[in-house]
Amino acid sequence: MTQMIEVLLSGMTQGAVYCLIAIGLSLVYGASRILNFAHGSLYTLGGYIAWYFVVGYFSLPLWLGILAAIPILAASGVAIERVIIRPLRSSANWKVNTIMVTLGLAFIIENGLQLVFGPGTKTIPAFAEGVVTMGGITLSWYKIWIFVVSLGLVGALEFFLTHTRYGQAVRAVSQDMQGASQVGINVNQVFALTFALSVVLTGIAGILLAPVFLISPLGGWGPFLKAFVIVVLGGLGSTKGAFVAAFILGVLEAYIIFFLGSNWAMPAWLVMLIVVLMIRPKGLFGVWEN
Q1: Which residue of 34, 133, 256, 271 has the fewest CB atoms within a 10 Å radius of its CB?
Q2: What is the tens place of the pLDDT at every residue in 164-214?
Q3: How far apart are CA 37 and CA 25, in angstroms?
């Protein structure tokens, strides 16, 4: 019984980090109707930025490495939106064009990381070591911190979206882009903000998981695929749906790995996705279009 509880808690921890990645992807889609195929590469970029500060050159503790990476990640998100995405909006097939361009951007980031850091894998030391045992249940302190930090960031984002002027502007653009523009909201500024938030969230997820999994230049496609499944399952553009779906699939993954092995985890995710979409084609909470 205690082992089953440990698997459940491990799945919830994974779900919390998946939630960061998926909400970042969902946030951009909800505001701008763009599916960013470079999202997984930006997850990897976060891990390498933290490695640079923590292991490579400055020997900072991981929590300081995260703080140092945040402005770089945010600036990267704004640059992607302003330099790459915004000029495409005036084209006739801009949605298709953004898919192709962000896919190309993913390959550029991957190859750039290989050139700068080499093709080999890297890792980052955790900022908390050891385990805690309660009632026969054993958990690592670092996984507890991952869970707390991830939920804290999700909570902070929800507070930002519901209780601040900029957050309410993001929600307004997500609900009605033209209406938001007519009442004076700077839509382009909102797009840049959502890209910044998205890259920060997925980059931090990459940093948090770096001590658990190795960092690799090509390691972003797995997280992107999982984030995509979570977003579709929860409902495109719905942060609430991404939150719920991330925990469902995180726990499912933990039990599948425990009983059947890691090779069955992704097929189980896809089966869950197909079953849900057969019942609710729009996902758990989402709407395809405004």
Answers
A1: 133
A2: 999 999 989 888 888 888 888 899 899 999 999 999 999 999 999 988 888
A3: 9
pLDDT tier for residue 286 given thresholds of 50, 70 and 90: low
Contact 223, 206 (CB under 8 A): yes
SS (H, E, C) 21-78: HHHHHHHHHHHHCCCCCCHHHHHHHHHHHHHHHHHHCCCCCHHHHHHHHHHHHHHHHH
Cα dihedral sign for 12, 263, 210, 155? negative
The pLDDT of residue 139 is: 83
CA–chain centroid gap for 197, Å, is 10
Residue 288: what pLDDT? 46
Distance CA 266, CA 201 (A): 23
Per-residue model confidence (pLDDT) at position 23: 92
Mean pLDDT computed over 135-155: 88
> What DSSP letter does each residue of 160-223 carry, written as one string?
HHHHSHHHHHHHHHHH-HHHHHHTT--HHHHHHHHHHHHHHHHHHHHHHHTTTS-B-TTTTHHH
With beta carbons less than 8 A apart as the criterion, state whether 52 and 276 touch: no
Write the pLDDT tens digit of every residue in 105-139: 999 999 999 999 998 899 898 877 888 887 778 88
What six digits make up the tokens of 125? 């030391």
The Cα 242–Cα 285 span in angstroms is 9
Give the Cα separation of 273 and 227 in Å (integer): 12
| Angle formed at CA 260 by CA 211 and CA 122, multiple of 5 degrees | 20
The residue-averaged pLDDT of 145-174 equals: 92
Longest dimension (CA), the chain: 61
Could you identify the residue written with the tokens 């945010």? 74
